[in-house]
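Quick one, tokens below:
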């Protein structure tokens, strides 16, 4: 029997990560799900500004996503992971390798959630910019370095980094009024460099790497947290758009030609008709 391929998806408790996990499960992958929220109702800080704290529970959890993955006929493995805790990164990867023996796809979707995201430069403590860089840049780099040796040994592997236009352009307005903070833009801009360098250095070893830009997506957190900052969730595309494109990137032979490149999820989903009934 052919050994099933394994994907590790960070930030898989809700939103885009949850959608990617489900689409990978439908495409024949067993999925390791990594995040902080293990069960519904856990309270964590998710305010985007230093001006106010919000620790109310957001909908979604690893337990819920795991149930949905298993309903697709795939195996699910929930692993605790905090992007600001480097020890947890190694523990998560080690758990997946111990249980399933391989990681064929890494999706670096999780990001820093907390104050500083929607604060202006003068209002943002430097340590919050550090947190953005640690969670959004260093954690993906660390996870990537941990999974690459096995991928190189097998001669195949895919790294997908969730990108953002905030790392390529100036905001349309100040943070908190329709724009975004320095930490988020800086960290996404830095993360964008990883895929191209991996493609150049390890393409001959069978490694594929992509920057996958979702565009504006109607996630649970956008709907609950971001209206006050000028973002209307009703204008966003469904997270399944990103999930469908991620699954195409790791299964379609023609996707290999795009390695190292920038993938706009919404236009590509429309072009290829990856999500029937949308677009």
């Amino acid at each position: 029997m052919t050994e099933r391929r394994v994907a590790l998806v960070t930030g898989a408790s809700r939103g885009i990560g949850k959608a990617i996990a489900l689409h990978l499960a439908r495409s024949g992958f067993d999925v390791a799900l990594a995040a902080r929220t293990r069960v519904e109702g856990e309270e964590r800080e998710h305010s985007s500004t230093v001006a106010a704290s919000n620790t109310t529970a957001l909908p979604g959890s690893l337990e819920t996503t795991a149930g949905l993955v298993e309903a697709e006929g795939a195996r699910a493995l929930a692993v605790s992971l905090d992007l600001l805790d480097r020890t947890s990164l190694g523990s998560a990867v080690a758990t997946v390798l111990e249980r399933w023996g391989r990681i064929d796809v890494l999706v670096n979707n999780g990001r820093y959630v907390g104050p500083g995201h929607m604060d202006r430069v003068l209002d943002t403590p430097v340590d919050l910019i550090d947190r953005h860089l640690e969670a959004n840049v260093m954690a993906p780099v660390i996870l990537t370095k941990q999974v690459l040796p096995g991928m190189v040994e097998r001669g195949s592997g895919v790294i997908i980094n969730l990108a953002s236009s905030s790392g390529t352009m100036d905001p349309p307005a100040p943070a908190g009024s329709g724009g975004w903070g320095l930490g988020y833009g800086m960290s996404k801009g830095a993360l964008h460099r990883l895929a191209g360098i991996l493609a150049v250095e390890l393409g001959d070893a069978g490694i594929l790497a992509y920057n996958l830009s979702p565009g504006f997506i109607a996630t649970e957190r956008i709907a609950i947290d971001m209206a006050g900052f000028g973002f209307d969730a009703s204008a966003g595309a469904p997270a399944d758009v990103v999930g469908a494109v991620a699954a195409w990137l790791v299964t379609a032979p023609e996707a290999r030609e795009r390695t190292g490149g920038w993938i706009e999820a919404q236009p590509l989903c429309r072009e290829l008709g990856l999500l029937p009934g949308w677009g």
